[in-house]
Amino acid sequence: MNQQYPSILLEKAVGEFSKLPGIGRKTAMRLVLHLLRQDTATVEAFGNSIITLKREVKYCKVCHNISDTETCQICANPQRDASTVCVVENIRDVMAVEATQQYRGLYHVLGGVISPMDGVGPSDLQIESLVRRVTEGGIKEVILALSTTMEGDTTNFYIYRKLDKLGVKLSVIARGISVGDELEYADEVTLGRSIVNRTLFTGTV
User: Fold this and answer.
1) What is the DSSP track for the chain?
2) 202 φ/ψ angles, rounded to the nearest 5 degrees
3) Cα–Cα distance between 79 and 104 in angstroms, integer?
4) 74-83 — which CB contacts under 8 Å span 24+ positions?
5) pLDDT of res. 123
6) What one-character-per-residue DSSP string does 155-195 give?
7) pTM of the predicted model, to two decimals?
């Protein structure tokens, strides 16, 4: 046992919390000590919520967003514009765009962007399922709302090449988002304007 820890159980708990992104060992220690001060029922509710999430959460069979059911609430909502699909990198980006209240279409979550340096290729992403959605008909516009990074631009171009001949309008969010920015960190006003003021995508990176 590490000498700075009075308990192996404490050390193990701190070790698990510190595996979370952005959580160092000092922060992990504060979180663990906070939980120790809570009553047993509160801690059990916390733990059970994580276990239940992992066991029962689903991914929408249409757009791949996180869902409690086979089809997410957005895809199942008849008031959404099913002819427009906004392509995003991850689930956090869906939440960011929804927070703007400027978009009423559907989504398609890729699960990342093409990044050879990280070993992520087109087959690792939900690109083919996007092509199938467009091929099935009913979709008039695909909005490419990926981060304005080299990887995001590369993914935009790849999707453009896959959809170019399918007769669907391809647009990209306006560059109100600074080059190199992650979509989820943009403020709601800027992101909302970027969606509303989207431009036709011509295949240039």
Assistant:
1) --TT-S-HHHHHHHHHHTTSTT--HHHHHHHHHHHHHS-HHHHHHHHHHHHHHHHH-EE-TTT--EESSSS-HHHH-TTSEEEEEEEESSHHHHHHHHHHT---EEEEE-SS--BGGGTB-GGGTTHHHHHHHHHTS---EEEE---SSHHHHHHHHHHHHHHGGGT-EEEE--TTSPTT--GGGS-HHHHHHHHHT-EE--S--
2) -105, 0
3) 8
4) 74/98, 74/106, 74/107, 75/106, 79/104, 80/104, 80/105, 80/106, 81/105, 81/106, 82/106, 82/138, 82/139, 83/138, 83/139, 83/140, 83/141
5) 93
6) HHHHHHHHHGGGT-EEEE--TTSPTT--GGGS-HHHHHHHH
7) 0.78
* Contact yes or no for 41/35 (Cβ under 8 A): no
Q: How far apart are CA 77 and CA 60, in angstroms?
A: 13
Q: Please determine, for residue 100, whether its predicted confidence score (pLDDT) is greater than 80.
A: yes
- Confidence (pLDDT) at 2: 55
Radius of gyration of the chain (CA): 21
Closest to 89 measured CA to CA, from 176, 184, 170, 181: 184
CB 190 within 8 A of CB 177: yes
Query: In the predicted model, is pLDDT for residue 179 greater than 60?
Result: no
